[in-house]
Amino acid sequence: MTHLPDASDDFSGAPGGDPIRLLAVRDRPLSLDEVYAAVGDDAAGGTALFVGTVRDHDGGRPVTLLDYSAHPGAGAELRRVAEKVVADFPVRALAAVHRTGRLAVGEIAVVAAVSCAHRAEAFAACERLVEDLKHEVPVWKHQIFADGDEEWVGAC
Fold this sequence. Notes:
26% of the residues lie in helices and 40% in strands. It has helices at residues 32-38, 74-88, 119-136; strands at residues 11-12, 20-26, 46-53, 57-58, 61-70, 91-99, 101-104, 108-116, 139-145, 150-154. Strand 1 and strand 2 form a beta hairpin. The two termini are 13 Å apart. The relative contact order is 0.24. The model is unreliable at 1-8 (pLDDT under 50).
């Protein structure tokens, strides 16, 4: 599997135009501030932000690190997922960024945010965005357990 070059799939939409403001699959640390700023909109009364971090266990087993890999087409699939969310919800602005590479426990793996006129819409749209990203975007994680065992987990 190939890691995407840093920011090769970054997409920043123009404010006031496309509600999809930022999409990326990156091999560098993610910024909550960048994603939150990307979804700022004066007409939005609610912004939902999701931060996915590497936890220290999975299935009752201690995890030491994760190594994320992405298919070269992951950015295009992320765009497709984002477009579907925008089509299904009254989104003012949307952003999602996923990390690749080796991540230690506590590091940020994904940040997603959606702003809408109302909070319930923002929560629902952000939940859909995160769930569809997890299940449909070809990003895989290679889990390394404390006992030395390894396991691949992925959407595709």
